[in-house]
Design brief:
The complex is a heterodimer of chains A (285) and B (202). By secondary structure, chain A is α+β, with helices and mostly antiparallel strands. Helix content of chain A is 39%, strand content 18%. Chain A has ten helices and seven strands. Chain A has a seven-stranded antiparallel sheet, sandwiched between helices. The longest helix of chain A has 25 residues, at 134-158. Chain A is elongated and about 80 Å long. Chain A starts with 5 loop residues before the first helix and ends with a helix. A two-stranded antiparallel sheet of chain B has the order 1-2. Chain B is mainly alpha-helical. In chain B, helix 4 crosses helix 5. Helix content of chain B is 64%, strand content 2%. Chain B folds into two domains: 1-110, Rna Polymerase Sigma Factor, Chain: A, CATH 1.10.1740.10; 125-202, Arc Repressor Mutant, subunit A (Orthogonal Bundle). Chain B has helices at 6-9, 22-25, 32-53, 56-72, 83-104, 113-116, 131-139, 143-154, 159-166, 170-189, 194-200; strands spanning 14-15, 30-31. The chains are: A alpha+beta (285), B mainly alpha (202). At the A-B interface, helix 1, helix 3, helix 4, helix 5 and helix 9 of A face helix 3, helix 4, helix 5, helix 7 and helix 8 of B.
């Protein structure tokens, strides 16, 4: 047999050849030290590749994957949104909500575009009961935001045609009753004044906490899609804070047991205005 | 033609996920057998996804998306066929879709070489074959070759099974594997070098 091709040599090493051909390749290797050396190196590289990924098998599987595999990302995991009946009472309590007047204007016209960032810079984190060290809270928040940004990119990368990624379809009748629905008393934020159309939602686990991600798209490619994430939290309220992860901008805040993030690749001015409108509609302000 | 999953038709093998009243909540029950199979194959799916994406986080996102898709298409799984291969195919399909979407938007691939491995000490099976190098070299291969290598060399699927997952003929798997293995050897072991390295891109 002449020197076997790479395909034949590798198929031989993989045990994929019939007996006759395998014997021929083995004979060729036995009679050609260079070929034998090459076969040896190929085998070693394959072994190295297996070992390189072997550790993954022994890692603990993340809780969110186990939950996903068991179909437990169910209705009971949908974040309970603020009760609209408690809005009136809730609005009286927190001092840093003086700027609630702004979203009304924002939802009518972009009067505060350009002013939002300056305002953000002037905001201070609220003072409140806090039993966790600040370092832990900061680390947890950073991880939470890492995940929120990652989930944004995941949904955007999947594209609008990948309906399988959407747990909560925009049209509840479109899924044959196989998916979830938002709570009946939940007023889905209407972001049409910002050119954003609701496309559906996802049920997530972010840092071990259930969260709901709402997905909005726009024809304006300069603005791009926007996701809104709402999660439960036991941490103290926090004023809106800008963050960035790669090309993803975020504005996040905490209010009355809920953590919110508005996420997109558009600029922070735009996100700020959306956040104002959202916060008003969700009573997350 | 795919057949329905018999486990779905057995009320004793079904369990509710989420609401206690699936009809009211609109939530779909997941058969215990199906989800058990899914849980069992998770480590291998994570390894496959880790090799495809080169990122811990992207890999787990990919596996989660695959689980969610599988649950919505449980009825499409044909009893008597290999569940792991079916899941590998779902992971691969979602990953390819994501790559295409990324290409369309002309995003730069993330520079995340440092995220590929963990901080744990690298073991070596040979002085010049550092595992980190192997992972990096794998990530430099074209997606199709990466898939073939992970399915056959890492996960031990036969050529026929890998061909079924990748939905290509066995001969295509064979040639992809050959190009990938030679290229990988050239990158990490100083093998036949640039000629084959260039060929591997084709």
């Amino acid at each position: 047999m002449q020197k076997p091709s790479d395909e034949l040599l590798i198929a031989y090493l993989d045990g994929e050849l019939d007996t006759e051909t395998s014997n021929e390749v083995a004979a060729a290797i036995a009679g050609d030290p260079a070929l034998a050396r090459e076969a040896q190196m190929l085998a070693e590289t394959s072994a190295a590749l297996r070992v390189a990924f072997d550790d993954v098998l022994h890692e603990p599987v993340p809780e969110r994957l186990l939950a996903a595999a068991r179909g437990e990302l169910g209705q009971d995991k949908v974040v309970r949104f603020p009760d609209p009946h408690k809005r009136a009472a809730g609005r009286a309590a927190v001092g840093w909500r003086r700027w609630t007047a702004l979203p009304i204007a924002a939802s009518v016209a972009s009067l505060i575009i350009g002013g939002g960032i300056g305002y953000l810079g002037a905001m201070q984190s609220p003072v409140g009961p806090n039993v966790q060290p600040q370092e832990q809270i900061a680390a947890a928040s950073s991880n939470w935001l890492d995940n929120v940004a990652g989930y944004h990119k995941m949904l955007v990368n999947a594209g609008s045609n990948d309906a399988a990624l959407v747990d909560i379809p925009a049209d509840p009748q479109s899924n044959g009753g196989h998916k979830l629905a938002l709570p009946q008393d939940f007023n889905l934020p209407n972001l049409k004044p910002w050119g954003l159309a609701y496309q559906g939602g996802r049920v997530l686990f972010v840092e071990g906490r259930p969260a709901t991600q709402l997905f909005y798209t726009t024809d304006n490619k300069a603005l791009g899609p926007v996701t809104v994430v709402v999660a439960n939290t036991s941490l103290a309220d926090k004023a809106p804070t800008p963050e960035q992860r790669g090309d993803v901008n975020m504005l996040w805040w905490r209010h009355h047991g809920h953590e919110y993030a508005v996420v997109g690749t558009t600029n922070l001015n735009y996100l700020w205005n959306i956040h104002n409108d959202l916060a008003w509609q969700l009573d997350g302000i | 033609m795919p057949q329905g999953n018999k486990a779905n038709q057995d009320p004793l093998s079904s369990r509710q996920a989420g609401s206690s009243d699936p009809a009211a909540s609109g939530f779909r029950p997941v058969s215990a057998r199906f989800s058990d199979q899914l849980v069992a194959v998770l480590p291998r799916l994570r390894r496959f996804a880790r090799g495809l994406t080169g990122s811990v986080f992207e890999a787990d996102d990919l596996v989660q998306a695959a689980c969610e898709r599988a649950l919505t298409r449980e009825h499409q799984f044909q009893e008597g066929t290999r569940f792991d291969s079916w899941m590998f195919r779902i992971v691969q399909t979602i990953w390819i879709d994501q790559i295409r979407a990324r290409d369309v938007r002309k995003e730069e691939p993330e520079a995340e070489a440092e995220r590929i491995g963990s901080d744990e000490p690298m073991r070596r099976i040979e002085a010049r074959l550092a595992l980190g190098e192997v992972r990096l070299a794998l990530k430099e291969l074209p997606p199709e070759q990466r898939t073939a290598l992970l399915l056959v060399t890492v996960d031990g699927l036969s050529y026929k099974e890998a061909a079924a997952v990748a939905e290509v003929p066995v001969g295509t798997i064979m040639s992809r594997l050959a190009r990938a293995r030679v290229a990988l050897q050239a990158k990490v072991g100083g093998g036949r070098g640039s000629k084959n390295d260039a060929e591997a891109k084709r």
